[in-house]
Design a protein that fits this description.
two-stranded antiparallel sheet; Rossmann fold; about 240 residues; about 30% helix
Length: about 240
Amino acid sequence: MHHSFVCDKIFFTRSTCLLITAKGHRMEADFSVARERMVKTQLIPRGIKDRRVLAAMKKVPRHRFVEEALWREAYNDHPLPIGQKQTISQPYIVALMTEALELSGNEKTLEIGTGSGYQTAILAELSQKVFTVERIRQLMTTARNTLAELGYTNILFKAFDGTLGWDEYAPYDAIIVTAGAPKIPEPLLEQLAEGGRLVIPVGNRFSQEMIRVTRKEKEVFTRKEFGGCRFVDLIGVHGWKP
């Protein structure tokens, strides 16, 4: 005789609930294997070397940042839609931009473009504090909820024009922009700490160059290019017009 009881607010038999739990554990194990494969086949062969970045990419459950119908595609080598005409970047691009920031773990990091929250989670694994700005409030709310469910407590959120940065908490040791800009927004350069790194895609609306700018002194910056890429538009006062 089966005893019925409540499981997730729905009545199931004990055997049914055990089956659901077992299935959930199997899925999580499958996703863990998928993350391991993603790192070994997509990141390391393309030159990602930072052990902390690779560890974060192995740890963060990328599938949680897309709708459930796309979970099985989450660790594939391409971007995915997240709604509002926005995307979650290809895993390699997330790793490349993160590695370019050269995070040691003590940084105040500013992210422009929260999007799904996946890049935010990677930054939270590698920074002391993350400040993330998102223009589209609905995306920010969804990302904030997902990140809270995953237990992150070192992230502050703001719904705002990202091209203006977040002056209240400046300067930042690292700034990352996850959308393509026609030029580097001046407020972001102003909010970069001495020794700080800013990684941003710059170009036209169809293709960009991944750039890292490092502030050596107050008015002295160096620049390094990391190759071509393609991002959604950075919309704002110092970016593209809607």
